[in-house]
Specification:
Layout (H helix, E strand, L loop, with lengths): L8 E4 L25 H14 L2 E6 L3 H13 L5 E4 L4 H9 L8 E4 L2 E4 L1 H10 L2 H8 L5
Parallel strand pairs: 1-3, 2-3
Antiparallel strand pairs: 2-4, 4-5
Helix pairs in contact: 1-3
Length: about 140
């Protein structure tokens, strides 16, 4: 069995509070600024999707998000996970959905909404997930 690389969970704190990043070697994500402007988080979420070939957005402590992450880690992908606080869920969903129905966990592959846990599991079972991840650059196998 292949071991995935260690991952780092990114959390979006409430806009009015300052957060410290547990890993001091990297700068804190844009969500951790003291800017109370909710558009800052929305813009940052779109930026994270554009910068990562594979990324998962989920509620803080969501077990389905954990399952999606473990499945992708088992395949050799190392997706960053963005945990969204309850008070920011509507803003993040509204910005990222682009008019599509979206719920958490939301998996983005190649900058596009791939789907939730059901879609990830269904494409894994059908054998379509690995080719999709390779095409997006999330897997190098």
């Amino acid at each position: 069995m292949q071991n995935g690389l260690p991952y780092k969970t990114r959390a979006t704190p409430p806009p009015s509070s300052a957060a410290t990043d547990s890993d001091e070697s990297q700068p804190p994500p844009p969500e951790s600024t003291n800017n109370p402007n909710p558009n800052q988080t929305e813009t940052s979420a779109k930026k994270l999707v554009a910068e990562n070939s594979l990324i998962i957005f989920g509620r803080r402590g969501c077990c389905m998000c954990h399952v999606a992450k473990r499945l992708l880690l088992g395949l050799g992908a190392n997706p960053p996970v963005v945990e969204v606080d309850e008070d920011q869920e509507a803003a993040v969903i509204g910005e990222l959905s682009g008019g599509q129905g979206m719920e958490f966990p939301a998996v983005f592959v190649g900058g596009k909404l791939f789907g939730g846990l059901e879609r990830v599991m269904a494409t894994h079972i059908s054998g379509e997930l690995v080719p999709s991840l390779k095409q997006a650059g999330a897997l190098w196998l």
